[in-house]
Design a protein that fits this description.
Number of domains of chain D: 1
Largest sheet of chain D: none
Number of strands of chain B: 0
Helix content of chain D: over 70%
CATH superfamily of chain D: Cytochrome c oxidase, subunit III, four-helix bundle
Radius of gyration of chain D: 24 Å
Radius of gyration of chain B: 22 Å
CATH architecture of chain D: Up-down Bundle
Chains: A mainly alpha, B mainly alpha, C alpha+beta, D mainly alpha
Order of helices and strands of chain B: HHHH
Number of helices of chain D: 11
Oligomer: heterotetramer
Bound molecules: heme-A, dinuclear copper ion, copper (II) ion
Distance between the termini of chain D: 79 Å
Helix content of chain B: 55-70%
Structural class of chain B: mainly alpha
Number of strands of chain D: 0
Distance between the termini of chain B: 70 Å
Number of helices of chain B: 4
Chain lengths: 555, 115, 353, 256
């Protein structure tokens, strides 16, 4: 039958490492640095974003350490300000925005579509270099003495009142922004143009759908950030006042432009993670995703509505009350597609046949934590509530719940899920379960107290705070320690598994995606011959029939 | 065996990409467009010296939009492109309009004047 | 018990004074808290629904009990349910939140006004009677208080958690917030918008006093000159009265009673004269020229501090009759000419009535 | 047998259908050259979307401040040189016209015409930048470059500048309004500067394309680079089509 057209390897029990694959295809550092292979670029990205995650994490550690006591005794206030600024910039622009798309997306989208590569392999490599230049500039800003604008670069503070390395950091973000634009552009073209025969839009894995939606945001939103940041740099350098009220400019204009990108950016950050969750939930419950098209369309709806709500970051900043009304309403609307997804995932489990491997544990953590994070977002979207909560730790807790509890958990789910595909080896299961549980507990301990702190009124970006907030802060710091351990563990055991992990075989999870029908690690050209997609996504019956007709072994 | 797949055939797929024929626009057509653009420029400048009140910027922008449209349609071949490309172009302008219109909800409804 | 006395001491000392819920000290607090608890309820409800679904399915359909999955397409009915219910809940929260927002940001007409100037990194409060406070604010209970606030440099944010109110303090423009304190006591004042190095030091204390105590306090801390009196002095010394003399022949319009009125501008539009308008009329006079006048008023941008502007605004607000202005004209010795404005020579040339 | 569906789309399989299939430009990861071409132009269009949004931010700033400070914008705009701006518009349209002809030449495989057209495109592009240089220089001399040396003298005292008839006829601006001309000039330099930057990048690419065109790379059926570059160049033209009336022609009508 048709299944023969898809190259496949025997199962894990008999698995051996293929002789030829993308990792050993060529040797030497240059073969990596000049590669055009989307899988190798994904690995390059994986290494670099991990590096930056730990840089950002180190700053998080320092923040939490400083907040252990009410006084600013560990470091002076200006140093603390640099800490959270670097933490925010590194985590957002150098870690979370590229996290899933540039690693897993890069690696998997062509394979999931049955293509040999992304549409523009060289541009893909260029993206990575841009990313690295942006990263290097950020580190340069750090080494030269740091930046203390906060990741939001609020004018006129950033333009006229600080004499730290704002322009360097702005350039870094500008450059990294173009890396993100090119990644998004590449994905969109690939998804439109490179699908294998039979791969209709509604046969694409939901992972691809969510990346498609996120890519739209990258392509259309990021340039607005770029121009906003250019204007900040120009205003600093020349000193004229598009954003300076004393010269007739409107500082809120900067905020409009900044959040026009940065709100959609939060969906750039969450959508790819949602794609991961769809794959993982389906695979470990052996069921097709409940309401496939609702989940697919809700991704696009999030992307579309995501452009209409940015002003909710400015509700008390002096925008018109009537306009705030409009944006608040739209904010409520954009929350609905997320709710749809959550319930669709939950019902995917119904009548499934569920197992609890590590990726599944992370996926459960994602659903729970994202629900909390998302619903507290609704607090902030409700105008009257936002007045009290804005700029307090409630916000900090909200966005860590969606970004760390959501996206980071999804990233870890994805990394564990596709680790066998990317490296050909399994991660150690019990250790990884331990780390999943540890980070879940640590996470809640860190950020749950911050909700309470926020309602008590503790402002964010405070190096010192009134003594009555200390108990909760100590809890939070304690949690961060546990969380740090939970995040360090994967680094160690995944590294270990590169050499000592069990050989994975082509399809250790018995998953349905095209990526699982080829050898692990894949060949440089992914497929020996162009696959033909003749079934729906998540068609487990097709998979069962297919394994009976097992054929070719390659490599 | 291949016949089993024909129903699974996506028109927007690689084997039959959603594309328009590669249309070659003739130089004559380009000349028409070129002349129109020059005339448009002339009118723009001329109109700027006629006092039409609020209509001045509107006329100027209308002419600019018209000129941009024919550049997009003919110089850039959008008229002969697939629907995908047309939608792409439209979506770009759409998001630009979102930026303008939604930001304007703030500026237009501020209690008075600029601030 | 097992806990060592030292640790016990430590813990009790710690727990003492640490709170889980902020004090409710204004009339708006209960309203905000009500919305908060409703939202909390919504969250718990959503979380429980999702949590129960996940747990039940995970237990009921785990591999051991359910070795083979039954494939399900989806269900329009179910999906419609979980689209409509959250939508309805969210919309409810939107309406509620919006009502609250307008309540918090629309001061009642009988509110008493206090000016607040924020700058890196301190708060200055100026009571109409001329009492100045730094990083502190005294207010009476049972009286709506409106704060008219402005920043001299960057964005700040004036936050009183116990009152559940907060408002951005913006350079170049007045913003307002109001509250009606209910319980005497001292409460935190925070700057919640990141404003540079000492952002976390830009804190203060709100002291809520009973009306009698407040009166006493006002009395004790008066500086001798009310804001309006200061403004009057400035009005003379800055040369405003040269044009705004209240005479029929004056080059500038008569400012008596202008506050609260509707002015017609020379482009035909009408504006309501409020604090913000007065401030802008002094700094950017040619931006909105009153009908019948030519744009000859010089800009005072960069020559008056925000405090000075507040004094002037307060003075103009209080001008009810021409008589006051003319008094000013007489009392202020006219030895001080109008201060030089940028490109001073050029501005006088422009004066061609 | 439907070959398109079952057999991999190797070059050989189609060699008899598309005679140009084995071109060296064909990248291995595309099934067909058609696919490659469509991907390329789609990618280019997407890139232009990001450009729309990039300039869009500045256009919005323009819209806002023009409404706020109309008198300043009108007066400052009248400072700009309409003949130069109009000439530049014509130059740029011509450059775009030659670019379009270049695309045609490449499509019909006329190598010489292609090279000539690309050369003309480049020359007109450079001419545009040349004119722009003189305009910028004039602004520099008048202290109209935003920053510390910016001067509003010309707007508060136009009568002192009889040598600039456009200005001389202007009504003087009040000093506070005159200050706002700086915002206009900032936007003017930011927008035309970004536009000029795009032109400079374009000219660099043109030089490279000319060299390759001379080698005959684009007249053998491989027109994608020319087409895609054409899209970019036309986009840059379009930006100017808006910049010209918005910046130069705000309020020219009181003919004195
Ligand atoms: C991944 C990132 C991410 C995501 C996905 C979100 C998602 C959302 N965010 Fe968040 N947000 C941030 C990252 C993110 N946010 C960041 C970084 C900031 C701060 C920036 C800064 O100032 O530094 C911020 C700040 C922020 C603010 C500004 C607060 C302020 O500054 O005053 C607001 C206000 O509206 C908001 C709202 C929302 C909403 C409504 C959603 C929605 O999309 C959430 C939708 C999801 C759900 C609603 C959960 C699922 C629903 C259910 C399970 C249904 C439950 C059932 C019933 C109710 C019956 N966010
Ligand atoms: C992807 C985004 C992301 C991620 C993953 C995180 C992760 C974490 N964040 Fe962060 N955070 C932001 C994005 C993110 N944050 C943003 C955008 C802001 C706002 C910035 C601003 O206001 O401008 C912010 C602000 C912010 C604050 C508020 C600061 C303030 O307002 O004053 C706090 C405080 O607790 C905090 C804590 C943490 C903690 C404990 C983690 C933990 O999850 C981190 C756990 C990881 C580790 C601990 C790493 C492990 C590595 C090591 C242990 C190495 C150890 C080495 C040394 C210590 C030298 N973050
Ligand atoms: Cu002022 Cu923070
Ligand atoms: Cu947002």
């Amino acid at each position: 039958m048709s299944a023969t057209s898809i190259v496949s390897l025997p199962d894990q029990s008999t698995a051996t490492m293929p002789k030829r694959h993308y990792i050993n295809n060529e040797h030497g550092l240059l073969s990596w640095l000049l590669t055009a292979d989307h899988k190798r670029i994904a690995i390059l990205y994986l290494i670099s974003i991990t590096f930056f995650f730990f840089i950002g994490g180190a700053f998080a550690g320092l923040i939490r350490l400083e907040l252990l006591t009410p006084q600013s005794d560990l470091v002076a206030a200006d140093t603390y300000n640099k800490f959270f600024t670097m933490h925010g910039i590194v985590m957002i622009f150098l870690f979370l925005v590229p996290s899933v798309p540039a690693t897993l997306g890069n690696f998997l989208i062509p394979i999931m579509l049955g293509a040999k590569d992304l549409a523009f392999p060289k541009i893909n490599l260029l993206s990575w270099y841009l990313y690295m230049i942006g990263g290097t500039l950020t580190l340069a800003a750090l080494v030269l003495g740091g930046v203390d604008t906060g990741w939001t670069f609020t004018t006129p503070l950033s333009t006229h009142y600080l004499n730290t390395h704002v322009v360097t950091a702005a350039t870094a973000i500008f450059v990294a922004g173009f890396s993100s634009i090119f990644t998004g552009l590449n994905f969109i073209v690939t998804i439109h143009r490179m699908r294998a025969p039979g791969m209709t839009w509604f046969r694409m894995p939901l992972f691809v759908w969510s990346h498609y939606a996120a890519s739209l945001l990258m392509v259309l939103g990021t340039p607005v950030l770029a121009i906003a940041i250019v204007l900040v740099a120009l205003e600093r350098l020349i000193g004229i006042g598009v954003f300076d009220p004393t010269k007739g400019g409107d500082p809120l204009l900067f905020q409009h432009l900044f959040w026009f990108y940065s709100h959609p950016a939060v969906y750039i950050m969450i959508l790819p993670g949602m794609g991961v969750i769809s794959e993982v939930i389906s695979t470990f419950s052996r069921k097709r995703v409940f309401g496939y098209s609702a989940v697919a369309f809700s991704s696009v709806a999030i992307a579309l509505f995501g452009f209409f709500v940015w002003e909710h970051h400015m509700f008390i900043m002096g925008v018109s009350n009537y306009s705030a009304l409009v944006f608040s309403l739209l904010t409520m609307l954009v929350a609905v597609p997320s709710a749809i997804k959550v319930f669709n995932w939950a019902f995917t489990l119904q009548k499934g046949s569920i197992t609890f491997e590590t990726p599944m544990l992370y996926a459960f953590a994602f659903i729970g934590l994202f629900t909390i994070g998302g619903l507290t977002g609704v607090f902030l979207g409700a105008l009257g509530m936002d007045i009290h909560l804005t700029e307090t730790y409630f916000i900090v807790a909200h966005f860590h719940y969606v970004m760390v509890g959501g996206m980071l958990m999804a990233f870890l789910a994805g990394i564990h899920f596709w680790w066998p595909k990317m490296t050909g080896r399994m991660y150690p299961e019990s250790l990884s379960k331990l780390s999943a549980v540890t980070s879940f507990i640590g996470f809640n301990l860190t950020f749950m107290p911050q909700f309470i702190l926020g309602y008590l009124g503790m402002p964010r970006r405070y190096a010192s705070y009134p003594a009555e907030f200390q108990v909760l802060n100590v809890l939070s710091t304690a949690g961060a320690t546990v969380l740090g351990v939970g995040f360090m563990l994967p680094l160690l055991y995944l590294g270990w598994s590169l050499k000592y992990g069990a050989i994975a075989g082509a399809n250790p999870w018995q998953a349905t995606g095209l990526e699982w029908q080829i050898q692990s690690p894949p060949l440089t050209e992914n497929f020996i011959e162009t696959p033909i997609m003749d079934h729906e996504a998540y068609d487990y019956e097709w998979l069962e029939n297919k394994t009976k007709h097992e054929v070719t072994t390659v490599g | 065996m291949s016949h089993a797949h024909t129903d699974a055939h996506d028109p927007s797929n690689v084997t039959n990409p959603e594309h328009a024929e590669h249309h070659i626009v003739t130089p004559l057509q380009y000349v028409y467009v070129f002349v129109t653009l020059l005339v448009g420029t002339g009118i723009t400048v001329g109109a700027a010296y006629v006092d039409m009140g609020v209509l001045n910027p509107i006329v100027a922008l209308a002419i600019a939009c018209f000129k941009a449209s024919i550049v997009i349609l003919f110089f850039m071949h959008a008229a002969y492109q697939s629907r995908l490309i047309k939608i792409t172009i439209a979506s770009g302008f759409f998001v630009f309009l979102v930026l303008i219109a939604m930001t304007m909800t703030d500026y237009l409804s501020r209690t008075w004047g600029l601030w | 018990m097992g806990i060592s006395p030292v640790l016990w001491q430590f813990l009790t000392k710690w727990m003492h004074g640490s709170a889980l819920f902020p004090a409710e000290a204004s009339t708006i607090s209960p309203w905000v808290d009500a919305l908060y608890f409703s939202l909390l309820l919504m969250t718990i409800f959503g979380l429980v629904v999702v949590g129960v679904l996940l747990t039940v399915f995970a237990i009921r359909y785990r591999r051991e009990k359910s070795p083979v999955a039954t494939q399900i397409e989806g269900s329009t009915l179910l999906e419609a349910t979980w689209t409509i219910i959250p939508l309805a809940v969210f919309l409810l929260m939107f309406v509620w939140g919006a009502l609250l927002y307008f309540r918090i940001y629309n001061p009642p007409t009988n509110a008493m006004n206090i000016y607040v100037v924020g700058k890196q990194w301190m708060w200055k409060a100026e009571h109409p009677g001329g009492q100045h406070e730094i990083n502190a604010l005294h207010v009476p209970t049972g009286q709506p208080v409106q704060l008219t606030m402005i920043s001299q440099d960057v964005f700040h944010s004036f936050s009183i958690p116990a009152f559940r109110v907060k408002r951005e303090v913006i350079p170049g423009r007045y913003t307002t917030v109001w509250f009606n304190a209910t319980t005497p006591g001292t409460y935190h004042l925070f700057c919640t918008q990141y404003c540079g190095t000492q952002h976390s030091g830009m804190i203060g204390e709100i002291t809520v006093l009973t009306p009698e105590d407040y009166k006493k306090w006002l009395h004790e801390s008066t500086s001798g000159m009310s804001l309006a009196q200061n403004g009057e002095r400035l009005f003379a010394s800055m040369g405003c009265n040269q044009c705004h003399s209240g005479n029929a022949a004056a080059r500038g319009p008569n400012l008596a009673g202008v506050y609260g009125s509707k002015l017609t501008l020379n482009d035909g539009s009408k504006v309501l004269v409020n604090d913000a308008y007065l401030r802008d009329a002094i700094l950017n006079p040619s931006q909105h020229v009153t009908a019948g006048f030519s744009p000859i008023m010089p800009t005072y941008q960069g020559q008056i501090s925000e405090d000075g502007l507040i004094d002037l605004v307060e003075y103009i607000k209080g001008l009810q009759t021409n008589y006051r202005v003319q008094q000013t004209l007489v009392t202020a010795s006219s030895d001080e000419a109008a201060p030089p404005t940028p490109a001073a020579g050029t501005t006088t040339e422009m004066v061609k009535p | 047998m439907d070959s398109a569906l079952t057999t991999p789309h190797t070059h050989e399989a189609h060699a008899h259908e598309h005679e140009h299939i084995s071109l060296p430009q064909h990248r291995h990861h595309f099934e067909t050259e058609e696919q490659q071409r469509e991907a390329g132009s789609f990618g280019m269009w997407l890139f232009l979307l990001t450009e729309i949004m990039f300039f869009g931010g500045m256009f919005f700033a323009y819209l806002l401040y023009r409404n706020w400070y109309y008198p300043a914008f009108a007066a400052a705009s009248n400072q700009l040189n309409v003949p130069m701006g109009a000439t530049n518009t014509v130059i740029l349209i011509s450059s775009g016209f030659f670019m379009a002809l270049g695309v045609w030449a490449s499509e019909v495989r006329k190598k010489k015409t292609l090279v000539i057209m690309l050369l003309l495109t480049t020359i007109f592009g450079c001419a545009f930048l040349g004119v722009k240089y003189f305009e910028y220089k004039e602004k520099y001399e008048l202290h109209h470059i935003p920053g510390n040396n910016f001067s509003i003298a010309m707007f508060v005292n136009p009568q002192n500048y009889p040598q600039y008839p456009d200005t001389y006829a202007e009504k003087p601006l009040a000093p506070d309004m005159a200050q706002k001309t700086q915002i206009f000039f900032f936007l003017y330099f930011a927008m035309t500067g970004m536009h000029a930057l795009h032109m400079i990048i374009g000219i660099g690419l043109l030089v490279w394309l000319i060299i390759r065109a001379q080698r005959g790379d684009f007249t053998n059926g491989y027109v994608a680079p020319i087409e895609n570059f054409g899209l970019y160049w036309h986009f840059v033209d379009i930006v100017w089509l808006f910049l010209f009336p918005l910046l130069y022609l705000i309020n020219r009508h009181p003919l004195h």
